[in-house]
Backbone:
């Protein structure tokens, strides 16, 4: 019941403050455009006059790509067959989470990813600040004012999260697969080893989720409880999550399922819809941009719902605090 | 128990299939060996009869002891492997802790009729290093005889040896109760022109040996199943062990594998008047899903290669499906291959069929035509790669691009891109192009600059140079060439010149110029359309012959265009090329350029502007390292770039949102 209510209330907050979504969408699109323009330029120069352009109008020419990729540098390396499919390029992105190979698309993409993380550390202050406010009246100035107000805390949280994930991918990730290799090295069944590895990836996923949830609640606690210490908020968030592990994970998993639903829709649209004319291409681009907007909206729904879930338990938390004080 | 009964029944069923194939038999091996699964050793005795077919007496006999490549990291094999970052053979400490491999000679005795009888020559055994003087390498040894073997005389060796299989060794090794014995016994070298053609075990080399008869009895624990070269003729069981005897004539090596986990499937291939072939598949339970594909792919290969080259001459063909997580790999041995393929691989890439066909093709270009893989590796690998392309294209059609997600040791989630089709020849073409100028193709296998260049210039270039030749000469002529070469040199040791001679026999002109460039140099073949232009022809201005100003027509009324196309040879490889020019009115002109100069200009005056120019429009020249520059349009079309950059931008937008996990 709590999860359902939290999601309903979270959605309602997001709808009431939907004007924040375009702000973040513009940031996302602007960053992407900064790199998409040089990609257009290099592709236009490479295939604009070539015979393979006919095939590239409706499909993908593997032979061209094989040659092109042999000497590819920088952004050129990111032009790959996966872009042709409906799902493959999106799977590539999720694969990064499980492998930790964040520089596999090159340093430029990596730096843009980091920039987006810290840019959103700024925006998240405005988003959660507004959601936590009882009045919830959105205005650009108020949004940016709250973003600025919480930025140093949210930046510290984002930096801590990034560092924690760095340690995770450098220490825990290899340790998990090191153990798997150690145990399975003499196994004769190929399938058994495969499933053990799959379990390893599942554990990686749980770890990522765990860290993510802690930091989400840390931001909420920081705003709701008006805390000054980001570290303390991480600790409180950790305690909160452990105390309500089924609810916090449950909420997250339901929203992840919603995200997967969105992904399936856009994936199938892209899979079935291979535009061969400019008009159809523009139509596909509209679908894609709607997906990005919905994805940002879903992310805000995470924040809103988690905030509401936290609020549902807040009296209990206060009670706990009071008891401690009495002692 | 059921498995065991079936196995014995099969032994009797198979016996009698052995055929005597005519060939020049220089060696005659009789071996009795026993596998000890506990200490991973094969102990045994070898009776080897060798005939000196040369015109000179021979005082020293050279042998291979390939397993010593795995004795320690000082072997030439390991040194070369570690020195080459592109070599695929990674032997981390976790992979090799359980033991090194070696071949130990317990005693070496020999007899020559009327000269010496069962003479112990163990003291005269010397390890030698003919290739690199690496004194720590023990993969070649020689035996000094007390008396020479005269021409046409026979010597009989009686060698007692112990072969220790390495853990996860390359082409030979064990894991758990799976054992694979390749290059496992003392093998005599090839005497050519009075000299021993004998090389060490290298990172990038395969093998060379004489034809002869093999009669090998292998003893294993009773619950083990054996797959081996040749035909199982009989077996006997006692004291918890089973001994199986495998016999084959006219082969030049013998490999075997054993495990109690093997499942066995057999089927007899019969087609037209071809001799029947028993296909015997040994597979692990995890690979049950591949059984039908194994059998049907081999049947397809037997049929087509039989028609294209010559019918498979041996009575049996064995496939040993090895554990993926070993380094025994996919490899060819006479009348047997090992196949290493994961249980969940992508189907659309047809890589499974591709690898089987490739390994089976070696039965012809390594097995039946036993070229020297040390000296001319392309004669085997290039021909096998050409044959796999030919059969895949003829029967299996285009292949899909596929990708393996979350790939790591023993794990991946394959994904087929059904919309991205390609041709195996193009894959080989692209894999070759990056290393096109690194090395020439016909050279000793360990002299390539690195493993990648070896693969590119031996496997890929070797195959596409044959495919290019086929396109150049025409399918009919080339089919005759391949069939003649296969038939004429079966059970022989052909050299590159033998093949070139056959080509020249059927070709309307000598093709020496082609082989000189493609085999004996690293010349790069790359043609491009470097410039394409059209401009409307303006009416003449100024004074005409009468001293009056030209009145002329207005430019818009004049629909004549002057077009120029410049084609260029970017590489050193010279070959005549077709150039097709297409005009905007649909008219086409075909030109032939001999490619002798660095560039050639074609000029036209016509009533339409030029649309595009294409070099080699039928894509006959698969050796061209960059085909995408062969076609050029006069006007740019930005739509494809826009389409792909839009897709790219959406991918990046999504990636940026995914990074929010870390915020």
Residues:
């Amino acid at each position: 019941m709590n999860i359902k209510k939290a999601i309903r209330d979270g959605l309602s907050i997001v709808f009431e403050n939907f004007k924040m979504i375009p702000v973040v969408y513009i940031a996302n699109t602007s960053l992407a455009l900064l790199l998409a323009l040089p990609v257009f330029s290099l592709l236009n120069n490479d295939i604009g006059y070539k015979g393979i352009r006919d095939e590239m109008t409706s499909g993908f020419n593997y032979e061209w790509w094989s040659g092109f990729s042999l000497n590819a540098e920088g952004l050129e390396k990111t032009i790959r067959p996966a872009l042709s499919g409906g799902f493959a390029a999106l799977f590539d992105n999720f694969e990064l989470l499980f492998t930790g190979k964040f520089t596999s698309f090159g340093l430029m993409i990596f730096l843009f990813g980091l920039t987006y993380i810290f840019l959103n550390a700024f925006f998240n202050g405005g988003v959660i600040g507004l959601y936590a406010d009882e009045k919830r009246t959105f205005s650009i100035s108020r949004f940016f004012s709250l973003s600025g107000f919480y930025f140093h805390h949210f930046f510290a949280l984002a930096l801590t999260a990034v560092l924690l994930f760095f340690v995770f991918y450098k220490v825990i990730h290899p340790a998990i697969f090191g153990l798997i290799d150690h145990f399975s090295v003499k196994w004769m069944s190929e399938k058994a080893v495969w499933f053990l590895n799959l379990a390893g990836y599942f554990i990686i996923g749980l770890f990522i989720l765990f860290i993510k949830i802690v930091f989400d609640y840390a931001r909420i606690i920081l705003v709701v409880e008006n805390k000054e210490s980001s570290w303390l908020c991480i600790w409180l968030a950790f305690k909160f999550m452990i105390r309500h592990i089924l609810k916090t994970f449950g909420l997250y998993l339901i929203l992840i399922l919603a995200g997967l639903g969105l992904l399936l829709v856009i994936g199938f649209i892209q899979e079935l819809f291979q535009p061969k004319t400019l008009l159809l291409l523009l139509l596909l681009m509209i679908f894609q941009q709607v997906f990005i907007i919905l994805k940002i909206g879903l992310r805000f729904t995470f924040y809103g719902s988690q905030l509401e879930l936290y609020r549902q338990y807040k009296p209990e938390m206060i009670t706990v605090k009071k008891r401690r004080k009495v002692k | 128990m059921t498995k065991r009964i079936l196995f014995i029944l099969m032994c009797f069923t198979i016996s009698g299939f052995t055929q005597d194939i005519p060939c020049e038999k220089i060696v005659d091996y009789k071996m009795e060996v026993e596998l000890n699964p506990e200490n991973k050793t094969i102990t045994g005795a070898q009776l080897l009869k060798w005939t000196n077919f040369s015109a000179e007496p021979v005082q020293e006999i050279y042998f291979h002891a390939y397993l010593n490549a795995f004795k320690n990291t000082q072997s030439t094999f390991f040194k070369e492997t570690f020195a080459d970052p592109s070599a695929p053979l990674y032997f981390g400490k976790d992979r090799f802790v359980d033991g090194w491999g070696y071949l130990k000679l317990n005693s070496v005795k020999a007899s020559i009729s009327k000269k010496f009888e069962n003479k112990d020559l163990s003291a005269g055994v010397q390890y030698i290093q003919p290739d690199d003087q690496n004194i720590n390498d023990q993969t070649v040894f020689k035996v000094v005889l007390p008396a020479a073997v005269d021409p046409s005389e026979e010597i009989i060796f009686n060698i007692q040896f112990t072969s220790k299989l390495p853990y996860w060794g390359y082409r030979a090794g064990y894991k758990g109760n799976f054992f694979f014995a390749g290059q496992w016994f003392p093998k005599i070298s090839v005497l050519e022109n009075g000299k021993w053609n004998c090389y060490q075990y290298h990172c990038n080399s395969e093998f060379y040996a004489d034809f002869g008869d093999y009669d090998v009895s292998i003893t294993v624990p009773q619950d083990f199943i054996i797959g081996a070269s040749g035909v199982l003729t009989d077996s006997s069981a006692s004291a918890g062990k089973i001994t199986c005897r495998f016999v084959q004539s006219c082969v030049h090596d013998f490999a075997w594998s054993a495990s109690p986990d093997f499942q066995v499937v057999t089927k007899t291939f019969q087609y037209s008047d071809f001799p029947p072939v028993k296909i015997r598949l040994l597979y692990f339970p995890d690979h049950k899903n591949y059984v039908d594909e194994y059998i049907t792919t081999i049947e397809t290969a037997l049929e087509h290669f039989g028609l294209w080259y010559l019918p498979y001459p041996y009575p049996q063909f064995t496939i040993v499906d090895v554990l993926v997580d070993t380094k025994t790999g996919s490899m060819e041995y006479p009348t047997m291959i090992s196949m290493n393929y994961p249980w969940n691989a992508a189907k659309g890439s047809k890589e499974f069929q591709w690898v089987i066909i490739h390994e089976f093709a070696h039965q012809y270009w390594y097995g039946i035509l036993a070229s020297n893989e040390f000296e001319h590796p392309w004669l085997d690998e290039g021909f096998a790669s050409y044959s796999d392309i030919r059969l895949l294209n003829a029967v299996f059609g285009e292949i899909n691009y596929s990708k393996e997600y979350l790939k790591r040791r023993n794990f991946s989630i394959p994904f087929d891109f059904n919309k991205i089709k390609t041709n195996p020849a193009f894959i080989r073409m692209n894999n070759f192009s990056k290393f096109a100028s690194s090395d020439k193709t016909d050279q000793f296998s360990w002299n390539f600059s690195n493993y990648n260049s070896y693969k590119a210039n031996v496997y890929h270039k070797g195959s596409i140079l044959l495919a290019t030749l086929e396109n150049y000469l025409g399918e009919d002529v080339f089919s005759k060439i391949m069939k003649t070469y296969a038939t004429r040199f079966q059970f022989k040791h052909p050299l590159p010149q033998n093949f070139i001679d056959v080509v020249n026999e059927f070709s309307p002109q000598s093709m020496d110029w082609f082989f000189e460039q493609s085999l004996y140099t690293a010349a790069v073949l790359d043609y491009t359309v470097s410039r394409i232009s059209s401009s409307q022809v303006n009416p003449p201005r100024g004074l005409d012959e009468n001293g009056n100003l030209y009145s002329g027509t207005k430019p818009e009324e004049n629909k004549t265009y002057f077009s120029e196309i410049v084609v260029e040879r970017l590489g050193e490889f010279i070959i005549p090329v077709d150039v097709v020019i297409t005009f905007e009115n649909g008219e086409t002109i075909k030109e032939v350029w001999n490619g002798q100069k660095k560039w050639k200009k074609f000029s036209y005056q016509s009533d339409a502007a030029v649309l595009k120019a294409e070099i080699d429009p039928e894509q006959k020249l698969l050796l061209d390292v960059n085909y995408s520059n062969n076609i050029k349009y006069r006007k740019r079309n930005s739509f494809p770039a826009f389409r792909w950059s839009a897709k790219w931008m959406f991918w990046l937008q999504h990636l940026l949102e995914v990074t929010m996990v870390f915020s």
Observations:
- The mean pLDDT of chain A is 91.
- Residues 2-326 of chain A form one domain.
- The longest helix of chain A spans residues 278-326.
- Chain A touches chain B through 95 residues (CB under 8 Å).
